[in-house]
Design a protein that fits this description.
Layout: E1 7-11, H1 16-23, H2 28-36, H3 38-41, H4 44-54, E2 57-60, E3 69-72, H5 75-83, E4 87-88, H6 106-113, H7 120-133, H8 136-157, E5 162-164, H9 165-170, H10 172-182, H11 189-202, H12 210-236, H13 242-248, H14 258-271, H15 274-289, H16 291-299, H17 304-314, E6 320-325, E7 329-331, E8 334-336, E9 341-345, H18 346-349, H19 383-400, E10 405-406, E11 410-414, E12 422-424, E13 426-428
Parallel strand pairs: 3-9
Antiparallel strand pairs: 1-11, 2-3, 4-6, 5-13, 6-9, 7-8, 10-13, 11-12
Length: about 425
């Protein structure tokens, strides 16, 4: 990764001061402002706890969010709205990516065609077509591909005794696994990794500087041209890869348009690696903060499936998403009116003490029902891929590097709000 965005050094040990600082805030608007501002945030989860107490369904005017937003932090509210047919992803919610307000930026144009921001009928049609491409054989092949990539990455660093977990493993691992599942040429991997990094940085409106936006636009153009050529090749000569399956998929005789196919491939590539890279980084930080659970997982690999679910709950990568409310939604004392934006706080919901006992503790036996992949019609399409990659990554890491530990007492957190993950995490082993 090159030209990484700035980050903030954070302690691997949560401090009581963070919780006390959050508990002292009396204005919910100040809490929301802190959540969105990485420079002032400090500990994130104490802020969620405070907002849940002060105003669990909070109408906000904080800068950085669209007008008419309601921030939700209780599990029951987030789950209900996520499953509601009255709350949809909508093209207007993609406006947060129109950084210069012209509607002409390459990044914004690509995001406007992405499945997540299509009208409901178009979203459902594209989703059905993508499901057809995700054949059982394609999904099953990911485990072997991921294991191969994980071993390759560890082979490179094993003799060094140390690495930056993010740059040397967590970031390239899911990206290369999904690239190989898609059937992308190996000689394009380094270029695609560079574009993927720049594209992802432009996807967080709260931290996107003009330089980040410019690099995101360059990446969008690069992705568009690359996948445009590749789709044409697969149409002429289909293979056994996921792109060929996507090209051939039909629903009532209708296939994806060229722009839909390109945006879908970029979405699969980005969602298939960025969030998983963050999940792996968050998982390792969580395990380092709970050394007893790390030791248990090291000694009992059979815990991996349950451990993965708890790690997803404990510190998910997608902290929030937005839904356009098309009909009033009544959430008890507060009604979210038609035309508003519901900000679904997945990270907050996953630490709701009403649902999870001692929610700030990592418990690998918990096997929770969580909202790390949302719920309802927009439930994450790649959830099976992400779960497989996390299980493979942790399994190979603890097998090959059983003494892995945090090097120093700090990590570097990214300046982001919607997505959460470390920018740098130094680890070592004997």
């Amino acid at each position: 990764m090159k030209d990484r965005t700035k980050g903030i050094e954070r302690s691997l040990l949560a401090t009581s001061e963070e919780a006390e600082d959050a508990a002292a805030i009396g204005d919910p608007e100040e809490v929301v402002a802190r959540i969105l501002d990485a420079r002032r945030r400090g500990g994130l989860y104490p802020l969620y706890h405070r907002l849940r107490v002060l105003a669990p369904v909070h109408p906000t005017q904080v800068s950085g969010l669209p007008p008419g937003c309601f921030v939700l932090t209780r599990f029951r509210d987030v789950d209900r709205v996520a499953r509601s047919s009255s709350a949809v992803n909508d093209p207007r919610t993609a406006k947060v990516f129109d950084h210069d307000g012209t509607g002409k930026g390459a990044f914004f144009r690509m995001m406007s065609h992405a499945m997540l921001f299509l009208e409901k009928a178009s979203h459902d049609r594209v989703r059905r077509l993508v499901y057809k491409a995700f054949t059982p054989a394609a999904v099953a092949s990911l485990r072997a591909l991921a294991q191969s990539v994980a071993h390759e990455l560890i082979d490179r660093v094993e003799s060094e005794g140390a690495m930056d977990f993010v740059e040397d493993f967590a970031y390239p691992f899911p990206l290369r696994a999904i690239m190989r599942l898609l059937g992308l040429p190996r000689d394009a991997e380094s270029t695609l990794e560079s574009w993927a990094w720049d594209f992802a940085r432009a996807g967080d409106p709260m931290s996107a500087t003009p330089e980040i936006v410019a690099r995101g636009n360059v990446a969008a153009v690069g992705f568009h041209d690359f996948f445009d050529r590749l789709l044409e090749e697969r149409r002429r000569t289909p293979g056994e890869d996921l792109i060929s399956a996507l090209v051939m998929a039909e629903d009532d005789g209708v296939q994806l348009s060229r722009e839909e196919a390109i945006s879908t491939l970029v979405l699969l590539l980005q969602a298939g690696h960025e969030t998983t890279a963050d999940l792996l980084g968050n998982a390792m930080i969580g395990l380092f903060r709970h050394p007893g659970e790390l030791e248990r997982l090291r000694n009992s690999p059979r815990l991996l499936p349950k451990a993965t679910e708890e790690l997803l709950r404990y510190d998910t990568s997608v902290q929030m998403s937005m839904r356009l409310v098309r009909e009033d939604i009544d959430l008890g004392p507060v009604k979210i009116p038609e035309g508003s934006i519901a900000v679904l706080g997945y990270g907050a919901a996953n630490r709701d003490p009403e649902i999870f006992a001692d929610p700030d503790r990592l418990d690998l036996d918990r096997n929770p029902t969580h909202l790390a992949f949302s719920a309802g019609a927009y439930y994450c399409l790649g959830n099976a891929l992400a779960r497989t990659e996390i299980q493979v990554a942790l399994g190979v890491l603890l097998e090959r590097l059983p003494t892995i530990r945090a090097e120093g007492g700090h990590f570097v957190e990214r300046w982001t709000a919607r997505l959460r993950g470390p920018l740098e995490l130094r680890v070592a082993w004997d």
